[in-house]
Amino acid sequence: MELLFPLLLVALLVPMFLGVRRQKREAEKVAHMQDSLKIGDQVVTTSGLYGTVVELDDTTVDLEIAEDVVTTWLRQAIREVRTDDQVNTEETGSEATGSDTTDAVEESAEQTETRLTKD
């Protein structure tokens, strides 16, 4: 009976200690990834925004999220750096699904004007 309390404490403290170590190791990996960002990296933010790094600062990252659209983010907001394999897989995956979507064709200003003023 005297050994029950110390064993119970050990049984509760060991998993907690191991969990803290794993969490600390993950935080170090993320901090290292955020510190090693370079221009041209394709990244995902914590809010799920995809972008390409175009400029770096000590605390901020400028991401191009569309052609000529650049936004500024804190480095801590970068969740992951996308590899070429991930980018290629997503691009070919959307083509391989066999959906019947047609390629978008940009219309001219005159066509837009005509379409909007038909009524």
Report on this structure.
Strand 3 (60-66) and strand 4 form a beta hairpin. The chain is elongated, with a radius of gyration of 25 Å. The chain has 3 helices and 5 strands. The chain is an alpha+beta fold. Strands 4-3-2-1-5 form a 5-stranded antiparallel sheet. Helices cover 45% and strands 24% of the residues.
Put the structure in a nutshell:
InterPro entries: Preprotein_translocase_YajC. This protein has helices at about 5-35, 85-95, 110-115; strands spanning about 40-45, 50-55, 60-65, 70-75, 80. With about 120 residues, the protein is of the alpha+beta class.
Distance between the termini: 88 Å
Cα shape: elongated
**Beta-strand segment tally:** 5
Low-confidence spans: none
N-to-C order of helices and strands: HEEEEEHH
The strand line-up of the biggest sheet is 4-3-2-1-5
Question: Radius of gyration in whole Å, from Cα?
Answer: 25 Å
Return the structural class: alpha+beta
Count of DSSP H/I helices: 3
Beta-strand percentage range: 15-25%
Overall pLDDT level: 84
> Level of helix content?
40-55%
Main β sheet profile: 5 strands, antiparallel
Biased composition (Polar residues): 89-102
Membrane topology: Single-pass membrane protein
Protein name: Preprotein translocase subunit YajC
Keywords: Cell membrane, Membrane, Protein transport, Translocation, Transmembrane, Transmembrane helix, Transport
